[in-house]
Automatic annotation (TrEMBL):
<keyword id="KW-0378">Hydrolase</keyword>
<protein>
    <submittedName>
        <fullName>2-hydroxy-6-oxo-6-phenylhexa-2,4-dienoate hydrolase</fullName>
    </submittedName>
</protein>
<dbReference type="GO" id="GO:0016787">
    <property type="term" value="F:hydrolase activity"/>
</dbReference>
Length: 197
């Protein structure tokens, strides 16, 4: 996580003079946005977190979680039967239609399972401090309330006075759930970007 965060910081420093109007990350991407804000090596006016989990744990728990999650995320790379079974699970859990379940599976099928495991594992071990408060930076959260209130509490724990917008959806459903989920979230993101920091 830190190796990749350093590469992102280097890019922002070289290509954008170390400053961005806004950065958005969803799921694992949110962890990178959080690290960029917390480390303060570059500046972001609007840090936008798209329905993140921001999970953090110790090495044993991280290893167990990655061993459980990675097969779930990569099970559809096998036979057609496994692919169809995974598609039905995604449709049920995330309320996706066939088209968006296919998009989700195609996204993950491009990556090596070992890479997914390594990123998932190191994400759990790369902690955010509590009450991150950076001058002239505003933290905005897309809160998918079907994830549960513990995530809402987590956002408030890690960031000082975050701007939180609540949506009736699952984790990342705004990315894969179709227009009914995406359009309201994109509207909120537009609103975030014109707010005063």
């Amino acid at each position: 996580m830190i190796t990749v965060t350093e590469k992102i910081e280097k890019y922002i420093s070289e290509k954008h003079n170390g400053r961005l109007d806004g950065a958005i990350g969803s799921s694992l991407g949110s962890s990178f946005v959080g690290q960029l804000v917390m480390r303060k090596n570059v500046h972001i006016d609007h840090a936008i977190f798209g329905s993140p989990d921001l999970d953090q744990s110790g090495p044993v728990s991280a290893k167990l979680q990655s061993m459980l999650v990675v097969p779930l995320l990569t099970s559809f790379t096998g036979s057609e039967k496994k692919r169809n079974k995974s598609k039905e699970k995604l449709k049920k859990i995330f309320e996706m239609d066939d088209e968006n379940a296919e998009k989700f599976m195609n996204c993950f099928s491009k990556f090596n399972p070992r890479s997914i495991k390594n990123e998932y594992y190191t994400d759990l071990l790369t902690h955010l401090r509590d009450d991150i408060n950076v001058e002239h930076t505003r933290a905005h959260f897309i809160y998918a309330n079907k994830m549960g209130e513990k995530y809402l509490e987590r956002y408030k724990k890690y960031f000082h006075d975050p701007d939180i917008r609540e949506f009736n959806m699952q984790h990342e459903q705004w990315l894969f759930g179709g227009k009914e989920y995406a359009e309201p979230v994109l509207k909120a993101i537009d609103e975030f970007m014109v707010m005063t920091v």
